[in-house]
Design goal:
By secondary structure, the protein is of the alpha+beta class. The chain has five helices and 13 strands. The chain has a six-stranded mixed β-sheet, with no helix packed on it. A four-stranded antiparallel β-sheet has the order 1-2-3-4. Residues 2-10, 32-91, 240-248 and 250-255 have low confidence and may be disordered.
């Protein structure tokens, strides 16, 4: 009985808060000039852990704060302030945030260092929709790695493979040798170079230096296709602007 009373009281408070919020929105909407200039409002029903929530989203257009008020049907109230920053040609700062994630496959490569910037971008055309943000690239393997380096002269990649083999030779008393003599050195090389990259997005393109490109470093002699997870986060481009040209989404900056 005691717990039932608490639930009833909490539910009544939730209903009151919902009604007050709706009244406030009606008052604001009656002031059309204020409403159009400062506030963008949207309401939708969202499912969280099998419980329905009404999400009231106030977006103050000329500030960097989006306030989300979630009213649960079971009396839960959540209030969040989420700062979302975005580059804008008009105000300098705009509000908004978007996330996109995709798993892609790289074609099998022989052992060595390979330039794969274009191969990745061809499989992620959604990058062009972002005005500003970050592109995170994660390789899902422990015997291959990623790096950001020289994109013009292929001799650099050959020299890098030579140096990796000198620094981390196969002729060492490795205990882990059941998958071949190239396996344990591959794990060490992957640790040295790393498994992920974070690259800025500028106006729908990767903000790479003039001579920068994404390296895929294959450390095994006979490996198959390698999997990558691409995560894009940032602010979407203004739909009123002209679309991007169909060229490769790479933005060159000074090296």
């Amino acid at each position: 009985m005691k717990y039932a009373l608490k639930i009833i009281v909490a539910t009544q408070w939730s209903v009151c808060l919902i009604l007050l919020s709706l009244i406030l929105l009606l008052l604001l909407s009656s002031q059309s000039s204020f409403f159009d200039k400062y506030i963008k409002f949207s309401t939708y029903i969202k499912s969280i852990s099998d419980q329905n929530f009404i999400l009231v989203n106030y977006t103050f257009k000329e500030t960097s704060i989006t306030s989300n008020i979630q009213f649960g049907f079971f009396g839960f109230l959540i209030f969040k302030l989420n700062p979302y920053i975005m580059a804008s040609s008009n105000l300098g700062i705009q509000i908004g945030s978007a996330w996109f994630q995709k798993k892609i496959n790289l074609r099998p490569q022989h052992r060595g260092v390979h330039l794969v910037t274009e191969e990745i971008l061809r499989q992620v055309p959604e990058l062009c929709q972002f005005a500003i943000g970050l592109c995170h690239i994660q390789i899902l393997h422990t015997s291959a790695s990623l790096a950001l380096n020289e994109s013009w002269d292929p001799d650099v990649r050959d020299d890098m493979e030579m140096m990796l083999n000198k620094i981390i030779p196969e002729e060492m008393p490795y205990r882990h040798s059941c998958e071949g003599p190239d396996d344990m050195p591959a794990h060490v090389k992957a640790c040295f170079l790393g498994s992920s990259l974070s690259i800025p997005i500028t106006d729908g393109k990767l903000a790479l230096g003039t001579w920068q490109g994404v390296w895929f470093c294959e450390h095994r002699n006979n490996a198959g296709s390698r999997k990558l997870v691409i995560t894009l986060t940032g602010c979407l481009r203004d739909s009123t602007r002209s679309p991007l040209s169909p060229v490769s989404p790479i933005a060159s900056t000074s090296s």
